[in-house]
């Protein structure tokens, strides 16, 4: 029996779980996949937005600004990777400059600090590799970049350390209210909870309909990306947007938290919520659009493509509310800026739960801090691929990942059993060779540490067979 059952271990569900772990409560998180952060919290731009893009007075605007302000402190506690870089929205035509002014004024109304409209020359002084066609830009000092999946992993590890129960490979299939409680039926058995939080991303409409709330429909809006080698990151320091369109914030060019150049995402409404494939034609259009902002990147340095699906609801704003079924809280349509807003969303949900009658008594044992998995390598780091010392034994050459880091990632209270799970935690396989060198070495380490046969180590857990179609690298490298 639980006080709170959270459905979905994305950035929203895990922020809520970690926040609730401050209190004397029995909390569980149910996740259908084999790891946390398998939904759109894994595949997004990783931008901590300033908060000027959303309409004043909306929940999106309020919680984006509030969430942005929490990142620095959260990163200090949880060490997941966050850097304030600033962002620019570029205008290429006179009519775009008026749009910048509109965003600027909206930002001021939303309480965003550090905003200014600058000329094309000023923008190029700050970012010398911007196109000569840039006429003006909206500069936002407070925007930044984060490692989105490491954020979720850090929240999950910390929540589990503070007593939250995380059940992976557990798909919710039905919810039955009874006498002020809920029976939650899952692919791994039943459990009972006093309150339920629906944080199921693109599937949150399906979860709501399990208790008879059929007002919501989520359409997945796919965004494809291209990731380039770290040697291209000299091109931009801040996040470079173009003026937004009907479909969203448009194509951006950014350096990721770990230093790769990244371009994307497009926006396409699709039918299949699980389809995170990429295709050559879309990548070609993304490359053309990104070159409008930053012409100089070298497509021969492209490493891989990926995609994520935004949960677009039939309401424009975030839905974060106590539903008509007492004790059942809905979070629906948490699309961008949901990553930025997630820490503030969690605080709002805790308030809603308290108003619904949940008693919040603080735990003196709450431990706010979590150590990083990836260790900064000092100048005298003596890593070798044949070192007998795990601290110096390099498993992944491209990203300099050591045996000690991989072993550490396996023993943090969350089952880590696939190559992808290790990759998200340590970056083994994320470099130039995309795992060609380290894949088999990580597999051997996993088999040894988990004491299982080599062939039982999968790429991404139980659903290994469901591989997304990816655009062929050879086809876009010559663009
Ligand atoms: C292309 C793209 C770019 C974006 N860029 C940004 C950005 O730069 N900055 C920003 O602030 N935001 C951005 N966002 C938005 C942000 O990624 C989302 O708002 C955020 O990740 C939503 O998190 P979530 O936890 O609600 O959803 P998810 O991460 O999707 O988590 C939901 C979880 O619920 C689980 N689940 C679903 N159904 C069930 C079930 N029946 N039983 C058990 N578990 C279930 C899923 O497996 C999943 O793990 C972007 C989104 C996309 C797609």
Automatic annotation (TrEMBL):
In this chain the FAD dependent oxidoreductase domain maps to 3-351
Q: Which InterPro entries match?
A: BFD-like_2Fe2S-bd_dom, BFD-like_2Fe2S-bd_dom_sf, FAD-dep_OxRdtase, FAD/NAD-bd_sf, G3P_Oxidase/Oxidoreductase
Domain BFD-like [2Fe-2S]-binding per the UniProt entry, residue ranges: 394-448
What domain of life does the UniProt record list for this protein's source? Bacteria
UniProt-recorded name of the protein: FAD/NAD(P)-binding oxidoreductase
State the organism of origin. Anaerosporomusa subterranea
């Amino acid at each position: 029996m639980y006080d709170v059952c959270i459905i979905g271990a994305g950035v929203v569900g895990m922020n809520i779980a970690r926040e609730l772990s401050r209190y004397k409560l029995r909390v569980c998180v149910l996740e259908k996949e084999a790891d946390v952060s398998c939904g759109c919290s894994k595949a997004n731009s990783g931008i901590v937005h300033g908060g000027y893009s959303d309409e004043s007075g909306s929940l999106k605007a309020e919680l984006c600004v509030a969430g942005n302000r929490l990142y620095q402190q959260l990163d200090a506690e949880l060490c997941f990777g966050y850097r304030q870089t600033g962002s620019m929205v570029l205008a290429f035509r006179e009519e775009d400059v008026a749009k910048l002014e509109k965003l600027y004024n909206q930002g001021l109304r939303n309480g965003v600090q550090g905003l200014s409209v600058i000329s094309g020359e000023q923008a190029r002084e700050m970012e010398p590799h911007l196109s000569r066609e840039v006429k003006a830009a909206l500069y936002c000092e407070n925007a930044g970049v984060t490692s989105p999946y490491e954020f979720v992993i850090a929240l999950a590890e910390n929540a589990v350390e503070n007593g939250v129960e995380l059940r992976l490979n557990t798909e919710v299939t039905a919810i039955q209210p009874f006498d002020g409680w809920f029976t939650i039926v899952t692919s791994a058995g039943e459990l009972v909870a006093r309150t339920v939080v629906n944080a199921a991303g693109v599937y949150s409409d399906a979860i709501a309909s399990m208790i008879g709330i059929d007002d919501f429909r989520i359409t997945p809006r796919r965004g494809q990306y291209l990731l380039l080698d770290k040697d291209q990151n000299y091109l931009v320091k801040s996040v470079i947007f173009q003026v937004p369109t009907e479909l969203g914030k448009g194509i951006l060019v950014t350096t990721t938290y770990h230093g790769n150049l990244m371009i994307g995402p497009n926006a396409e409404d699709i039918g299949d919520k699980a389809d995170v494939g990429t295709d050559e034609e879309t990548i070609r259009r993304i490359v053309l659009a990104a070159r409008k902002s930053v012409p100089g990147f070298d497509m021969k340095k492209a490493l891989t493509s990926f995609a994520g699906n935004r949960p677009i609801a039939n309401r424009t704003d975030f839905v974060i509310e106590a539903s008509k079924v007492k004790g059942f809280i809905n979070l629906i349509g948490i699309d961008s800026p949901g990553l930025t807003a997630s820490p503030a969303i969690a605080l709002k949900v805790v308030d809603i739960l308290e108003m619904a009658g949940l008693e919040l008594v603080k735990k003196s044992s709450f431990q706010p801090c979590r150590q990083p998995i990836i260790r900064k390598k000092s100048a005298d780091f003596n890593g070798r691929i044949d070192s007998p010392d795990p601290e110096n034994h390099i498993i992944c050459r491209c990203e300099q990942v050591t045996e000690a880091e991989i072993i550490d990632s396996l023993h943090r209270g969350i089952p880590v059993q696939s190559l992808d799970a290790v990759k998200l935690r340590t970056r083994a396989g994320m470099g130039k060779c995309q795992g060609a060198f380290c894949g088999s070495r990580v597999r051997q380490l996993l088999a040894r540490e988990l004491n299982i046969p080599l062939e039982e180590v999968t790429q991404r857990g139980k659903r290994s067979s469901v591989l997304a179609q990816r655009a062929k690298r050879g086809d876009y490298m010559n663009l």
